[in-house]
Every structure is written in C-alpha cells, then in structure tokens.
Amino acid sequence: xxxxxxxxLEKRSSEGEWKPQTFEVRSDHKxxxxxxxxxxxxxxxxxxxxxxxxxxxxxxLWMDGSSRHQLRRPEDAPATGPVSYTHLRAHETLRYL
Length: 97
Description:
With 97 residues, this protein is mainly β. It has one helix at residues 85-95; strands spanning 3-12, 18-26, 30-35, 38-44, 50-53, 58-62, 68-72. Strands 4-3-2-1-7-6-5 form a seven-stranded antiparallel beta sheet, with no helix packed on it.
C-alpha cells in the first residue's frame, strides 16, 4: 500500500462546524482523516455511492441515503485548476529517470 495523495482539508462535524484535518488517499482505495495527531476515520471508496460537487470548494461523499461526509478545501489553500494528461505523464516519467 502506498500513499497517492496527502494534504489538508476541512471536514464538517455533526455539529455543523468545519474542522481542519490532514488526509491521505492510499493505493488500496481508502481515504483516511487524521485529527489531533491520530487516525480519526478511514473510508473505503467502494462504499461511496455518489460524489456530489456542492460548489468549487466543497464535495459531498454519499455513503448511503442519509450518511454523508462533507469535505472542503480550507479558505487559505491555494486554488488549483485541472491539469492535462500530458502534465501528469511528465511527473510519472520524471519519477523513473
């Protein structure tokens, strides 16, 4: 298992507050959140029924009809746009040089 992506996001708590958490997406198709120095929650992408884009900064992962996880980019995070397939391949090629 390897880490494909690691960063910081904000997760909406059951109380409605947005709380910053580090996250990682792993090669075994799992998304893990870390808060307070320890593992907070791990989700299996196989259990995600639908991903809804609420706005440019917020995603909702629907686990079933009522269970969901709201994630957003922190306000101070730099905006990122889409990258081309060629750009991604260039990174992959550099890794093996």
